[in-house]
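Discussion board: Methods & Data

I've been asked by a reviewer to show the raw model output for two of the constructs in my manuscript, not just the figures. I'm not sure how much to include, so I'm pasting the format here to get opinions. Each protein appears as its amino acid sequence followed by a line of discrete structure tokens. Is this the kind of thing reviewers expect to see in a supplement, or should I convert it first? Here is construct A:
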Amino acid sequence: MDIKAIIKDDYLVFEQDTSLSELFGNLRQFEKRSALIFKNKKYVGLVLKKKLLRSNLDLSKVEVEHFLHQTPILNENVDVLTAASLLFDSNCDYIPVENNKKICGVVSSLDVAQLSLGLPEVLKLKIADIKLVKKIHVNNTDPLAKALEIMHDQFLDHLPVLEKGKIRGVISDKDIFRKFLNWSPKRDISTKFNKEHSTRSAQVDTSHFSSLPVESFATTENLITIGKKGLLKEAISSMVKNNISTVLVMDGQDFVGLLTLRNVLKTLSELKDKAGYSVNYIGLNEIDFTEHEQAEVERIVQQEALKLDKKIKMPFGLTIQFKEASKGGKKRLLTIHLKVDLNGKVLTSEHEGWEVEKPLHQCFEAIKANIKQK
């Protein structure tokens, strides 16, 4: 299952000498979430917002090159588990994608997690199968500096806030960052400051900002929970629905840990390492398949490849070639050629059909029968 369906044009391109204030101003104006940084037309990295919360900054003077975070570039044909693995290794929320050596979009961690729900092995996973971030929280009276340090060091976007041992709410990096850029305590008491602030570059005093209590930023809006006996697919669906990257795992009324998107990506990357096969499609995108037909092809291939993996018990490669033999009215006759490379030993099968599902199944059944005979 490749990532083509989740590639989005949700980014802007900036030169590395761009100021941070210009970067964020343009992202707001054009309603884009991602900023790709270039130097002499060459991609050099992303900007990680969390780094901006750890020092006093004049956003109009600081250039983005001081906050660059290097990442790989994905090929649009990579499978979803490979994408998950690279996102986890890169420790970022999104990553650029290329087509013919040119960046054509970005994919996000959240979209990769959602796409992975099309894999049978992912649907079976439980919350208990995922390593949780445990015993990580702040108290409502703690200074914001403590929350920022924990979120930075633990790669967290959300952090539970407790009051007398009970969940009071959650603190989000988005909420912090919004106030970080747009709010100062002086705004509450000084009309003169407000007027001056609207006509000059903003300089953020994070030393004062970070001394404020966590309760000033806590909210219940992103307080999404799931029971510890639940399924991973339920947690991912909640993340997608609420556009968040962290779910609080509960045992009744007791908080037991955080299920983070980063840990989901880690689990997906481990599934990739366990798989003893690779899949290569030829001609799939040259046939006018509907979205449903293409999804069905990928579902069947993943399902049958897992069955072969259990039978073969050694690394192998699958090559699946699709050809449109002829058309009969609104129908088309498809030829599907399946090749299995077993460490240099090749098994092949070819079948035709007017619908894609039947000949694809027939190809795999022929290969499995061939393996059984041998």
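Construct B, same format:
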Amino acid sequence: MNRLQVELIRASVSPLTLDSLTDIETFREIGSTNTYLLEAENPAPGSMRVVIAEQQTAGRGRRNKKWYSPPGAGLWMSIAYTFVTAPTHLSALTLAIGATLAIEIKALGVGNISLKWPNDLLVGDRKLGGILLESCSGGMTAVVGIGINRLLPEDASRHVEGIQNPIDLRELLPSVPTLESLASRLIESLMTAVKKFDRDGFDSFAEDWSNFDAMAGRKIVVQQEGCEESGTAQGIASDGALMLRTNQGLHRIVSGSVRVADCEDEVA
């Protein structure tokens, strides 16, 4: 029997959101919540499906990095949403989700939450969470994996690939929300976000994302396909592209990994 209680999650989600939820599934252990949804039946247009696991044994981050997701240590959740209208800039959904999560985590009482393009939730320069966007059905269905560190074991930093020390909600809040209450809160806000993105695109999220931008004005290094480019981060474009000012001018970066220029650890 799963320790995650789906009935408590459903009871805390509004009827309007429940009307657009195809399903909420919980697992004590799963390989990857994203993989599970990529292989499952897609929700109908305008609908969302949710999978939450207590533990992932094959959790993934960007560029196929292992995502450390031990039992009970965090919220390991994926959503699948099928668009009504084909998105123009699907990759920008990562940033829209990031802005949505940052707002919710700030509302919990984490005052210094920030976002690192394109997919990291930071507190200071430590990683609280991350987002993994994948798609299927020709880009009409998006699968978004979300990991939020909640109660990490003391040796967590030994298991995390390629980032600075992680941080969790236990270190940041006097009282850590239950997995069920955190999940229901985020499901509610994510449903609103994906429908808004479906209707309006990224434009309506750009200002919120910029308000949490951890890299703006900082010297950074962008790695793309085996090459690196250094410059100063100049925020994001209206479609979510990273703007990088170099000696050659202002460049648009639509994919890649970013690190602070004076930091050897990649946070991506």
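Answer (T.O., handling editor elsewhere):
This is acceptable in a supplement if you add a one-line summary per construct. For B, something like: Residues 179-200 form the longest helix (22 residues).
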